[in-house]
Amino acid sequence: MAARQAHLPRMLDFQQCEACTYDFATGEGERDCHYYECPYLPESLDARCPTCLFNFYSKDGNPACDDPPDCEFARTIAPERVGNLRRWLESQGPTERRGA
């Protein structure tokens, strides 16, 4: 548990590139770097299934397992990552990037 708590502040320190308008929660917006995925996004903030790319935060996409998703990632990893992403978004405060 201590290792998980120690990782939390580093995760919350993640900052998007200045020109990036990509919304990690919804998967929308432009990435100035033109990468398909952000090369700097900590894995602990990525709420998408690595197999089918279903976004567990926004519930967007077509899960490859079932509807609702019931794969191992959905049961064990996604809930923690969604929580991490929520905490990160809250730590960023309202910003123009997220339409607030």
**Class inferred from helices and paired strands:** mainly alpha
What is the overall pLDDT average? 81
Order of helices and strands: HH
How many angstroms separate the termini? 33 Å
As a percent range, the share of helical residues equals 25-40%
The value of Rg in angstroms is 14 Å
Oligomerization state = single chain
Largest sheet: none
Q: What proportion of the residues form beta strands (DSSP E)?
A: under 5%
Can you count the beta strands? 0
How many separate helices? Answer: 2
Poorly predicted sequence stretches spanning 5 or more consecutive residues: 96-100
What is the approximate shape? globular
Question: Could you characterize what this model shows?
Answer:
With 100 residues, the chain is mostly helical. The protein is globular. The relative contact order is 0.17.
Task: Itemize the secondary structure elements and their pairings.
Elements: H1 2-12, H2 72-92
Compact overview of the structure:
The protein is mainly α.
Features:
100 residues, mainly alpha, 32% helix
